[in-house]
């Protein structure tokens, strides 16, 4: 197979999504499967839909368009506030968009009129994370404006936490969101379809015994794809954490000193070098680098450690493992490494089917050619 590559086990993604859909469904919460980290991959989208997610979500209209071109007919929401320059594309291809600015909402209305379509609007509320959102005190007036505009439907309200500032979703802020939903419905005499509580960081709260309130919807990407909640990056019971792996090829394997020599300056990425003398070591170079992924987001197999990376090289200490040129090393990935690798044209995307291990099981991370 081509290297470097991301190996994406579609059956494990389906299993992860199915378990989350079932368990959250018992608490009255529906799931939108988020495809943004996979560039709107139609294979990943279909894997999520097979599991029963109620629709798909993406932050890029380009990804949504790509899924529509591949005949994905399921409901799709744009989960980033639309750009004014893209409102025509948004109403043409997305059923719902998340919004915080009335200037954008008005343009969506005009674009929807021209396209003879109805577009759903979810108003995002700022509850402390300081990424995006309407301040709670301004929400009623914003909702009133949406209701006034033609060809728009006020689908619901939502919030996003644990992203920019790391504010945890908890009983208090979810209760605040529920109270805002109640206030809107009472004041404006409307019924909200969605009260969207957040993302994979919400799972501790959503699956906990004390969960209550109006929240009936989550947008899940990391939990489905990587089997982890995104607040503390802990595995979720019963989910596969190895549905996606990064595989890279060895292009050099030598015994070298542990200390550089010569006059030292900055590295290729402007960093200083601090080293300690550990004698000669087995050093391995893999054909992948900063241009392709976030090296800090790689989880190397046991016995290997990452020494650093340049644009095109990932350098490992292979310890007692003498890896051969042409061999392969398989890494776990976090969300950051996954997103960067997915966007790299130099990383092949290999979609595979067939679960060969149970959740939490360890499998071989070394391949020989």
UniProtKB/TrEMBL annotation:
Isomerase among keywords: yes
Pfam families, per the entry: Ala_racemase_N
Domain of life where this protein originates: Bacteria
One GO CC term, this protein: cytosol
Required cofactor names: pyridoxal 5'-phosphate
InterPro entries in UniProt: Ala_racemase, Ala_racemase_N, PLP-binding_barrel
Keyword field: Isomerase, Pyridoxal phosphate
Domain Alanine racemase N-terminal intervals: 8-225
MF (Gene Ontology): alanine racemase activity; pyridoxal phosphate binding
Name listed for the protein in its UniProt record: Alanine racemase
Organism of derivation: Alcanivorax dieselolei (strain DSM 16502 / CGMCC 1.3690 / MCCC 1A00001 / B-5) (Alloalcanivorax dieselolei)
